[in-house]
Fold:
Amino acid sequence: MTSARCVSRLISILMLNACHFGGPSGDPAAYVSSVDDGGDTGSPEADNAMDMLTMDADIVNETSVDTSVRDSASADALGGDSGDGGDSATCAAPASVPVCDPLTNTGCTLLQCDVDITMSTPTGVCVLGAAVPAAEGAACTQASGSTACQAELTCFGGSCRRICFCDSDCQGDGGAVAACCSDSYSTTGFKLCAACP
Amino acid sequence: MTLSTRSSRNWVRHVGLVGAMLLPAREVLASPLFELAGGVGSQGGFNGRTVEGGAASAYYNPALLVDASPEVSVGFFVLSQQIGITLAGRPGTQYAVPTGIENATNANGSPWKSTPIPTNWLQNGRVATATIPALAARPRQGDSSGQGLFTYQMLGLVTKIFRDRLTLGAYALIPYNEFTGANAFYSDEREQYFTNSLQPELYGDRMVATSVALGGGVKITDALSVGLGFTLNLTTQADTPTFVANAGELQNILVDSAVKVAAGLAPHIGVSYKPTPRFRLTATAHAPEKLGIDTNFTFLLANGDQQAASADFSHDYMPWQFGVGASYDLWKGANESVTIAGSAVFGQWSTYVDRHSETPIATYGWYDTLTPVVGVRYQNETAAVFLDTEYQPTPVPLQTGQTNYVDNDRVGVDGGIAYKFSLFETHFRIGTQLEVQRLIPRWQSKLPTPTFPDGQNHTPALVADEVPDGSVVNGQPLAGSVGLQTNNPGWPGFGSSGWIVGGGIYLSVVP
Structure:
């Protein structure tokens, strides 16, 4: 009985190997560095994927231990640097925004201009406005094809935020600087107004 | 060489007959059905590339048409597909995509690369709210296409011209159930938006593709013949310009359509050589074929903003196939013969294109395969029987990563019997055949996916973490984002097995 199983298994192996050519290339668990990894995350050309995963575990640990540093960096990236374009001297707003301008809500007929989050350069998109739009700072839900926020605002992170390129875009009615154009809006090229540091 | 008036009339009639079959063929296409079912209505069986198979030789090896007798055949064929797909249970709720992710982003505020649906909604549905209608549940594997019964009309024609030097053949399997079918599905986590199920990759809708082949064989010498045939490649382009008056009321959109169908030929060639009266060698090559559907969408908004999108589909894809074979008459009398036959078909499945026109990633690249077939035949003046067996290795590697292409090794047996008789001074041949194919059970477990605090996917070949670690919502850490969360219906593993059973009867008018 055991011999029969062995013969059967041998035939299976022979059939499998004899009838297959080519096939998968590479290790599915191989580590692939992303553009955000920087240059010190290891090489994807490494021969042994498990070595790479081990190597990467160091990165994981390092990142875990260094959470405060990462948070600090994130804070900087998200708004800690008010001088990054917010200052009128260095602010460089684009001459025009394709499709429509969400800062001024111009370019759409019947619809409302919002930020096109699928683009990596500042681009607007015409969407359906809400019957009762939410004011700045009010809670909202991000949706495709519609917006819950008032014009010149966009829904980001669960609240309606004012869109800007420069600090002047965040000025209140009285002329005083109410906020700074300091928060990045992901990779859209737009910024968002936030409290000045 | 000159043709007599009678020969000319015959030639016109023969071309007309073939043309009559060609005309409707412009609206249909060849399919993998021929490869799965083997020759129907003849003694070709699974060895159609090596043994003369009547009209079916128009597809398998048109050079063998030279040895076929003129005939008109009609038949009925049925195939039952019973493929079971079993999913491993999800081990815990910590792997579920949580609710409340509508505003979630990566830690740096960038949007997620994909937008999963909360796992609970998929499994149980979601009740209606004041503003959003209810969402029906679509549980895992609740909508698979593994079972089905398919019936076909077989049509065959063989005719000879130029003093039997040239033989023309036409062969078709036309589904009764639906003229042709094409259902696209994703083979990874993207299928959560649709059936949330796994589907057999090389069966299902591939069994309801209408199949038509035309071919001709030329007798070069008494020992050597060559053949050329073709099946049809169709490409359908559908443009659907859409006007959206109100993005919040998509049920009121206005849509036009413009559909174009372009036909191309997928050729195949064959050679037959008989070094001795009892020994035959054959070789064949079949070009790739598919049904292409290119869909273009344009959306025009009321403000004049126009956006476009497109999606390409490839159905019923068959790769390059090269076959060699040999047959030998173990015993040959005046009116009887016993023949053994064997063939091997190389399929270049490494070039496979799936229904969404995507090629499997290199890490899980498909194999090229070699399919062996062996069989035996007995034939006398009035009766003929055959029995073939084949082993079709799956080209699909074990799906331990992101993709869920479902396929199995297959072992099949095909047998048939035919009887010749006369009625009202007309000769007929009636036959029947039966085939049983076993999809050998296969199981695969997904490799574990390492996740990273940066939220990036560093192992794209493995099951994707659809809720990146470190995600935030409304400025707060998203609960339940640490580790792997996925709606990939094939995670954490799946298995498949099954049977394909077919049979049919046919009647031929022969000289």
In short: Chain B is about 5% helix and 45% strand. Chain B touches chain A through 51 residues (CB under 8 Å). The helical segments of chain B are 5-25, 33-37, 57-60, 119-124.
